[in-house]
Amino acid sequence: MAMLNIDHDSQRFRDIVKGRVRRELRRFMSSKELIGKQGDQLVSIPVQEIGIPKLRYGKNEKQGGIGQGDGEPGEASGEPGEGQQAGDQPADHLLEVEFTVDELAELIGEELELPRIEPRGQRESNAKRARYKGISLKGPESLRHGRRTFRQALMRNISAGGYNPKNPRIIPIREDRRYRHFEMEEEPRSACVVLYMMDVSGSMGQAQKDIVRSQVFWIDAWLRHHYEGFEARFLIHDAAAREVDRDTFFRTRESGGTLISTAYELCQTIIERDYPVSEWNIYPFHFSDGDNATTKDNERCVQIVRDGLLPVSNQFSYAQVDSPYGSGRFLKVLQEHFGDEAGVAISRVTDKDGIMDSIKELLGKGR
């Protein structure tokens, strides 16, 4: 009974913590420190220490209390301090609370009211799963089928003439035992690949990359929550595009001009080579400040999105981060050509406070 009470209190505490995190989710979503605390499966979130209520026994010798007596609404109770000297009382401390990526995904889904994603493609999983195929005469006792064993014993008693309806005592023997029989088999499961493309040209500074990093973190959390098989590929581009690992994706220094089409061409090549559309749910995401070298390259990008990426993707997403050095023209180009397309999501992020709204725009279609 004591253990049940502990479990109940522990769950209640986690519910309180979740409520506090949900209230401050916008701040957490723009925090690059939070992303740095990510492990393989857990994320450590700093929250204000939660105090435990204390009861003080004794008589209430003073009349009234907080909320009673003289005073106006909003007026402080007691005498305020001057604030000129160091105090002698302990301050509030931060408490590190660990959440799974799934728990964070649930929080963001509830807060942003994101629709559930319906997976499209499937592929064969490398992991095998046990499926019960029938009944066997042999097997471990842990798989003994009680009902089938009893039925076999009953049939044996009836056929041998030993069954007495007035005293129906059935005792199974070794030959009566029946066991569940299972086989290991591969089964299809939903799989997802996300291709993150980021502009690293000279106009994309560290502030812009920090915004992209936060968006990638939360997009990852949401998509991983919906797919058992999840892969992420990382592409960077200036006037040329290349594939890199996750760490390089965020740490590459900005330089050079911009040809966005090089990233889209590389993205299309990777999809065609590695991810059959019938087996994979495909999500290209592009992050840029919207500065592209030429009008001709804008036209090339539109062609690749329309003919190469849209037909094979669940959704093509573009998030434009404001930069004091970028023209921002590319967002208008995409809006002019794909503003009404169901399979395209376009968002503008003015600063880190707009990350939450941008993610809702990108993931709100539930594709």
Q: What features would you describe in this structure?
A:
The chain is an alpha/beta fold and 367 residues long. It has three domains: 58 residues, no CATH class; 61 residues, no CATH class; 174 residues, Rossmann fold. It has eleven helices and nine strands.
Please tell me the CATH architecture of the largest domain by its name: 3-Layer(aba) Sandwich
Q: What is the fold named in CATH at topology level of the largest domain?
A: Rossmann fold
Mean pLDDT: 78
Q: How are helices and strands ordered from N to C? A: HHHEEHEHEHEEHHEHEHEH
In short:
With 367 residues, the chain is of the alpha/beta class. The protein has 11 helices and 9 strands.
Offer a few descriptive terms.
367 residues; alpha/beta; Rossmann fold; 3 domains; 7-stranded mixed beta sheet; 11 helices; 9 strands; 23% strand
List the helices and strands and how they pair.
Layout: H1 2-23, H2 25-29, H3 32-36, E1 42-48, E2 94-100, H4 101-112, E3 122-136, H5 146-159, E4 179-199, H6 206-226, E5 229-237, E6 241-244, H7 246-251, H8 260-274, E7 281-288, H9 295-309, E8 316-321, H10 329-338, E9 344-349, H11 355-363
Parallel strand pairs: 4-5, 4-7, 7-8, 8-9
Antiparallel strand pairs: 1-2, 3-4, 5-6
Helix pairs in contact: 4-6, 6-11, 8-9
